[in-house]
Amino acid sequence: MSSQHQTQFALSGDIFSYSVRVYYQDTDTGGVVYHATYLNFMERARYEWLREMGFAVNTLIQDHKIIFMVRSLNIEYFKPALLDDLLHVTVQVTEIGRSRITLFQQVLRDQVMLVSAIIHVVCVGVDSLKPVSVPMPLRQKIEK
Question: Beta strand pairing status for 86-96 and 112-125?
Fold first, then answer.
């Protein structure tokens, strides 16, 4: 893992926040975070969000026989992050269906939005890679 992190729930609402420091390897030669690196930051935040709820990825694979795959995403870039910035990457569920979860994610620096994305993930069986229902224990935790 290239970035230090610290997980915490935001004080208001059901917004999960993951902290990440920008390292040289995350940037281009000008010290600006490369556009695809934000997707890595968001993936890490989703991973830690699941872990914080008690559903580490390996638990989902071993116990529930499922994984989540990104079906689609819409990302917007507003301001650049720079070398050594401390960023906060948020995860917020906006909708949950039978097998799909829609998430709103932001990358913030000092409460200023740099990037936002709407990401649709689909719950699939590890063997078939076909859509299956979100496990009830996870669904209940999300809907709580």
Answer: unpaired
Tell me, what CATH number does 67's domain have?
3.10.129.10
pTM: 0.88
Helix axes 57-64 and 37-52, enclosed angle (nearest 10): 60
| Number of neighbouring beta carbons within 10 Å of residue 49 | 24
Among positive and negative, which fits the CA dihedral 81, 7, 133, 95? negative
Active site residue 28: yes
pLDDT for position 20: 97
Please name which of 38, 132, 116 lies closest in space to residue 78, comparing C-alpha atoms: 116
Distance CA(122)–CA(133), nearest Å, equals 9
Q: Which pair of structure tokens corresponds to residue 61?
A: 């694979």
User: Both ends of the chain: CA-CA distance in Å?
Assistant: 31
| Distance from C-alpha of 144 to C-alpha of 137, rounded to nearest angstrom | 11
Its domain, for residue 110, covers 5-143
How many domains are there within the chain? 1
Among 14, 26, 28, 63, which one carries the catalytic annotation?
28
Residue 77 has pLDDT above 80, yes or no: yes
